[in-house]
Amino acid sequence: MSKLIATKAIRGAHTLVKRAEEELRLAIQQKGPAAKVEFPNTGYYLPVSHGILGMDIQSLEGLQELLEEAKKLLPPLPTDKLWIPYLGNTLDAGMAALFADEIIESIKYTQDPLPYLIAANPDEEHLWIGAADDIIMRERGIEFVDGTAPGFAACVGYCPTNEMAVKIARELQEKNLYVFMSAATDGKSMAQQLREEGIQLGWDTRLVPFGDDVTATVHSLGFATRAALSFGGAQPGDYQRVLRYNKNRIFAFVLALGPVDDEKHAQAAGAINFGFPTIADTDIDQILPSGICTYEHIVSPVPLEKIVSKAIEVRGLKITITKVPIPVAYGPAFQGERIRKEDMHVELAGQLQPGFEFLTTKNMNEVEDGKIDLIGPEINDLEEGAQIPLGIWVDVAGREMQSDFEPILERQIHDFINCANGVFHMGQRDINWVRISKEAKSKDFSFRHFGTILHAKIHGEFGKIADKVQVKIYTQEKEVIELRDIARNVYKLRDDRLADMTDEAVDTFYSCTLCQSFAPNHVCIITPERSGLCGAYNWLDGKAAFRINPTGPNQPVKKGKVLDAEKGQWQDINDFVFQNSHKTLEIFNAYSIIEYPMTSCGCFECISGLLPSTNGIMSVYRDYTGMTPSGMKFSTLAGTVGGGVQTPGFIGHSKHYIGSQKFISAEGGAKRIVWMNKALKEEMAPVLEGIGKKEGVEDFIHKIADETVAITEEEVLEFISKKNHPALAMPPIF
Ligand code: SF4
After folding, report:
1. Burial of 491 by CB count in 10 Å (0-12 exposed, 13-18 middle, 19+ buried)?
2. Could you identify the atom of ligand 1 that is nearest to the CA of residue 554?
3. Half-sphere exposure of 179 toward its Cβ, with a 13 Å CA cutoff?
4. Over the stretch 443-472, which tens digit does the pLDDT of each residue have?
């Protein structure tokens, strides 16, 4: 390898370690060695040092130890006389640089005011958002596991023009990649260029501005490290597994845009440790042989027009795109895009105009594949700022199509339409709401393109069951209201079908093993009265998913002999779970939180856990970042309960399950809930009122504590004692 490039990387690492030492010295002088150090809302401490070295740094003093580790790794600068080109030294320098980055970045979080906005997306005043918290990590990390996002591009520096920055960002988004941005050069950065062009930045659009400092690049590697710890089963300190997981599973690369100085060379060297190559547009020395990365390590100079495709080729990424023939960019990266009122050309349905979306099954001879009808005005007929009704009616025909599949396909309308750049979609059924931006309109996006999208995507993703698809778009009030009534009758029939179903009424449940990619022994058993713990799959969905993909993760499982009706235990279910949990789980009770409860993977909506002294349980939703009466925040609880193990006293579950008759029915049911985080309690208010009514507990909802009145178990006990909560009079929970 080139001596020049090794020298630059090693020199850059020396500069960064020296800077970290100086900043740490100053911070200790000002705040004292015990001053707290943490990235916001995470159980992974400072993730690179936690994952690579197993360090749980929580104070400035802890950073001192990390600094020593960085110094140990620093190789001497190559001399003019003697130098044997050696990749190992460069890699060590890269890792030392990442440790130094992490020291510098964590010190920033001790400053007042904070240089970062703690949020998922920037706001008007703040561009940089720093390290991702655990909520973002879990939501987004799973996309790397299930393949929705094949990887990320860590973009350092800036492009020669704003147009080029937009072009590269769009190209990466269209390939479903996340774009992590850091390291301004001479005050210029790609993130600032995108903002100047009015591009929406943040986790929602996969364009994430970490920070303008070169050291903020470590947040990309921190994210990768947490993915290995969270989803790859790596233990803190098991650096081999962390790095191998990233090399094999996270398809990431660095795009070095513009001048590459010593510190950026050091970041590139750090990324190579993870198997992430660097592609530069300027003429820097290359490292072409493979070894750590699958293919080359550093490739340059690559023209900006070709840099994305070259990076994808070098990293060996397989990207599948279903091309949707519409005049705006299309891909999951645009799903989180919001269209502000001032950027909108037209609004359809929503609160002010009627709307609906409906998908139904037709006979083969009733559907003309690809036919799209528009009944009412087209976008070009409307003034800017218009608000009009919207009905979307989809007819699907197919030999394998069944009415059971209709809600599953219909639910996809939201995702499918939302993937169009410049189109915002919310809600479903008769609460749909769409906005189309001025930009999309200027590119000739029209209402008919809703049909184009649905036709392409239903064929692309449900080709097995859908042979023909036709779409009618209604934009006049009369038809929308008439057809909405028809759709509403069908929505009700569908709801009644599942609402009336009980576990006793069926002889087959459905499994889901989708989450085994990151929790290898986890099996969800989905029953009519207990949905999958992520909330995305109910029993009918499991049934339909099996028909759509008979060898997929949702399999029918006969219940077999009843072993315990009260706790929800059946012989054949036990056998299935045993085999499919790789023989780690012999007994499974569907309705108990105490005895052999269901395992939890990691993507549960809620966690419920025992509060022994209250004779009840607490339930917390995943977005709640505060402390819970269990003494743990959600992120710590998730680490304890998740991973595919049985944790008596705790279960992960969907929100919907709280309203089920079978919610921990072995222990007396939802009457046991003594604490909920406030937002969850408010959202579940109608369900809790229903439970109170059924159980004959007056004002049940107000007997449940939340964080505004209690955050310790003792405080919960005090609160519920005053309120005479029914759990106190129930038999001992264990
Ligand atoms: S939580 Fe359960 S139902 Fe949801 S995807 Fe994972 S395994 Fe499937």
Report:
1. middle
2. 8
3. 33
4. 999 999 999 999 999 988 888 788 889 999
Q: What is the mean pLDDT of residues 241-260?
A: 90
715 in Cβ contact with 690 (< 8 Å): no
Using only the alpha carbons of the chain, give its radius of gyration.
Answer: 27
Q: What is the CATH number of domain 503-580?
A: 3.40.970.20
pTM: 0.66
Taking domain 332-494, whether its CATH number is 3.40.50.720 is answered by: no
Look at 6 and 608; give whichever has higher pLDDT: 608
Dihedral (CA of 676, 678, 680, 682) sign: positive
Look at strands 524-526 and 562-564 and give their pairing: unpaired
Rounded Cα gap, residues 618 and 609, in angstroms: 5
Q: How far is CA 141 from CA 137, 144, 536, in A?
A: 5, 5, 17
Q: Which residues of 494-524 are buried (b: 16+ CB within 10 A; e: fewer)?
A: beeeeeebebeebeebbbbbbbbbbbebbbb
Strands (DSSP E) along 527-627, which ranges? 556-558, 562-564, 569-570, 606-611, 616-621
Q: Is 523 in the pocket of ligand 1 (CB under 6 A)?
A: no
Q: Is the model more confident about 109 or about 283?
A: 109
Domain ranges of the chain: 3-108, 134-315, 332-494, 503-580, 606-729
pLDDT reading at 389 higher than 70 = yes
Q: Is the CB of 533 under 6 A from ligand 1?
A: yes
Region 655-668: mean pLDDT is 95
Q: Which of 341, 193, 221 is nearest to 201 (CA)?
A: 193
- State the distance from the centre of ligand 1 to the C-alpha of 61, rounded, in angstroms: 41
The rounded distance, in Å, linking the Cα atoms of 254 and 249 is 16
Ligand 1 close to Cβ of residue 601 (< 6 A): yes
- Whether 63 lines ligand 1, by a CB cut-off of 6 Å, is no
> Of 80-89, 148-157, 177-186, 588-597, where does mean pLDDT reach its minimum?
80-89
Residue whose pair of structure tokens reads 């059971």 in the numeric block: 404
**Ligand 1 centre from 512 Cα, in Å?**
6
Q: How many helices (H) and strands (E) does the chain have?
A: 23, 23
Would you call 307 helix, strand, or coil by DSSP?
Answer: helix
Residue range 95-142, pLDDT digits in tens: 999 999 999 999 999 998 899 999 999 999 999 999 999 888 877 877
Site to substitute for ligand 1 among 531, 543, 601, most atoms within 8 A of C-beta: 601
Report the C-alpha gap between 725 and 727 in whole angstroms: 6
Task: Return the CATH architecture of domain 134-315.
Answer: 3-Layer(aba) Sandwich (3.40)
Ligand 1 atom, smallest distance to 523 CA:
7
For the Cβ of 515 lying below 6 angstroms from any atom of ligand 1, the answer is yes
Higher pLDDT, 622 or 14: 14
Tell me, in angstroms, the distance from the centre of ligand 1 to residue 528's CA.
Answer: 15
The residue among 151, 152, 158, 154 whose CA lies nearest residue 191 is 158
CATH class assigned to 3-108: mainly alpha
**186 exposure class (CB count in 10 Å sphere: 0-12, 13-18, 19+):** exposed
- Listed in sequence order, the residues at least 6 apart from 615 whose beta carbon sits closer than 8 Å to its beta carbon are 672, 727, 728, 730, 732, 733
Instruction: Return the CATH class of domain 606-729.
Output: alpha beta
Cβ(218) – ligand 1 distance below 6 Å: no
- C-beta of 424 in contact with ligand 1 (< 6 A): no
Give yes or no for a contact between 619 and 678, defined as CB atoms under 8 angstroms apart: no
The yes-or-no verdict on residue 701 having pLDDT over 90 is yes
User: For residue 129, what pLDDT is reported?
Assistant: 97
The band of 521, judged by pLDDT with boundaries at 50, 70 and 90, is: confident
**Residue 235 DSSP symbol:** P
Q: Could you tell me the CA-to-CA distances from 686 to 659, 681, 683, 690, 697 in Å, in that order?
A: 9, 10, 8, 6, 14
> DSSP secondary structure string, 644-677?
SB--TTEEEE-HHHHTSTTTTGGGTGGGGEEEE-
